[in-house]
Amino acid sequence: MVANQKRREFIATVGAVSAFGVAGCLSGDENASGNTIKVGVMQPLTGPLGSVGEPARDAAVLPAQQVNDADIEAEIDIQTEDTQTDPQAAVSAAQSLVDADYPAISGPLSTATTLQVLQNVCKPNQIAECTLATAPTITDVDDNDLLFRTSASDALMSQAVAQLANEGMDVSSISTFAINDSYGQSLANAFADAFDGNVLEQVSFESGQSSYTSKLTQALSGDPDALFIVAFTENGIKILRDFYSDFSSDTEILATSGIYNPAIPENVNADLTNITGVTSVGTGPSLDHFNQAFNDEYGSEPGQFTWQAYDATATLMLANAAADSNDGAAIKDNMRQIANPEGTEVTADNLAEGVEMAMNGDDINYQGVTSDITFDDNGDVESGTYSEYWFTSDGALETGDQISID
Amino acid sequence: MSYTDRLRDWLLTDDAALMLGVMTGLYALFTVFGTVLGLNFAGIVSTLQQITFFAAVYALLALALNLQWGYAGLLNIGVAGFMAVAVYTMAMLTAPVNAPAGGVPGLGLPIWVGILGGMTVAAVAGGVVALPALRLKADYFAIVTLAFAEIIRITYNSQLFQTFSVAGFEMGTGASRGIPAPTNPVLSLYYTDPSNYSAGTTAFGSMVFGAFGAIGLDEALVVDITYTLILIGFLVLYYVLLSRIANSPFGRVLKAIRNDELVARSLGKNTRWFKIKTFMLGCALMGFAGILWQGSQSLITPTQFTPMLTFYIFIALIIGGAGSNTGSVIGGALFAGLLFQGPVFVSRIVETVFSLGTAPNTFPDAVAGLAALRVEPLLAYTLSNLASLRFVIVGLVLIYLMLKQPTGILGHRKEIAASIDITERVSRENSVTPPQSEMNPSDSQSRGSGEDDR
Amino acid sequence: MQMSDFYSGLRDSVGDRPLLVVLGVCVLILLLDLVRQLSSGALPARNLAIFLKNGIVLGLIVGLAGVGLSMIYSILGFANFAHGDYLTTGAFAGWMTSYMIAGFGAFGLGDLFLIGIAGDATTVGVGAGVATTPIAILAGLLVAIVFTVFLSVAIDRLIYSRLRDEEGITLVFTSLGVALVLRYLIAFVWGQNSTGLTSTAEPKFSVSSIGLQINAHEITVAVCSLLLMFAVHYLLQYTKLGIAMRAMADNRDLASVTGIPTDRIVRSTWVIGGGLTGAAGYLMTLESGTLAFNTGWTLLLLIFAAVILGGIGSIYGAIFGGLLIGVASTVSLVWLPSGFTQAAAFALMIVVLIVRPNGLFGGVTTA
Question: Which fold has domain B40-353?
Answer without folding.
Answer: ABC transporter involved in vitamin B12 uptake, BtuC (1.10.3470)
